[in-house]
């Protein structure tokens, strides 16, 4: 499961990810991070079966936690199936179907956003969290 963590000026200085990994004996995959002196945001991936337990622990450290259910959104009305997203996606969310139409498996998406920037018709967008 992908989770958005939002740190404020107090929590951004705490080793919350390290504490979670050590105390909960779990692996955490950091998908994206933007951390400054006063705030920060991380998108992490955790084991689905332990997500609630890990979320509860992180929230107890004062971090705002939001589950990410929907990742990339493809507008089939705008898409011309040019395949630009297929060639740029690092985790192979997109594939060409037998009828040469682009299909998306949003479960694989890591919200990096590179497909959004290369789509010439703006048919892709990251879901709001």
Strand order of the largest sheet: 2-3-1-4
In total, how many domains does the architecture comprise?
A: 2
Instruction: Specify the structural class.
Output: alpha+beta
Tally of alpha and pi helices: 4
Mean pLDDT: 93
CATH architecture of the largest domain: 2-Layer Sandwich
Reading the helices and strands in chain order gives: EHEEHEEHEEHE
* Name of the top-level CATH class of the largest domain: Alpha Beta
Total beta strands: 8
Which fold does the CATH topology of the largest domain refer to? Alpha-Beta Plaits
Pfam families: Fer4_7 (PF12838), NIL (PF09383)
Domain 4Fe-4S ferredoxin-type: 70-99, 100-129
InterPro entries: 4Fe4S_Fe-S-bd, 4Fe4S_Fe_S_CS, ACT-like_dom_sf, Fe-S_Ferredoxin, NIL_domain
GO molecular function, one term: 4 iron, 4 sulfur cluster binding
Fold blueprint:
Layout: E1 2-7, H1 16-24, E2 29-35, E3 40-45, H2 51-60, E4 64-68, E5 72-74, H3 84-88, E6 94-96, E7 102-104, H4 114-118, E8 124-126
Antiparallel strand pairs: 1-3, 1-4, 2-3, 5-8, 6-7
Please give a structural write-up.
This is 4Fe-4S ferredoxin-type domain-containing protein. Keywords: 4Fe-4S, Electron transport, Iron, Iron-sulfur, Metal-binding, Repeat, Transport. GO terms for molecular function: 4 iron, 4 sulfur cluster binding; metal ion binding; oxidoreductase activity. It comes from Archaeoglobus sulfaticallidus PM70-1. The chain is built from four helices and eight strands; from the N terminus they run βαββαββαββαβ. It is of the alpha+beta class. The strands form three sheets. It has a four-stranded antiparallel sheet with strand order 2-3-1-4, with helices on one face. The mean pLDDT is 93. The protein has helices spanning 16-24, 51-60, 84-88, 114-118, and strands at residues 2-7, 29-35, 40-45, 64-68, 72-74, 94-96, 102-104, 124-126. A hairpin with a 5-residue loop joins β6 and β7. The protein folds into two domains: 2-68, ACT domain (Alpha-Beta Plaits, 2-Layer Sandwich); 72-126, Alpha-Beta Plaits (2-Layer Sandwich).
């Amino acid at each position: 499961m992908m989770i958005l963590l939002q740190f404020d000026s107090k929590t951004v200085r705490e080793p919350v990810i390290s504490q979670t990994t050590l105390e909960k004996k779990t692996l955490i995959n950091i998908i994206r991070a933007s951390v400054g002196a006063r705030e920060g945001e991380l998108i992490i991936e955790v084991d689905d079966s332990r997500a609630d337990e890990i979320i509860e622990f992180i929230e107890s450290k004062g971090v705002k936690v939001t589950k990410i259910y929907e990742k990339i959104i493809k507008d089939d009305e705008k898409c011309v199936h040019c395949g630009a997203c297929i060639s740029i996606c690092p985790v192979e969310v997109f594939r060409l179907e037998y009828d040469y139409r682009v299909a998306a498996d949003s479960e694989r998406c890591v919200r990096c956003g590179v497909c959004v920037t290369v789509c010439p018709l703006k048919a892709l967008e990251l879901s709001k969290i």
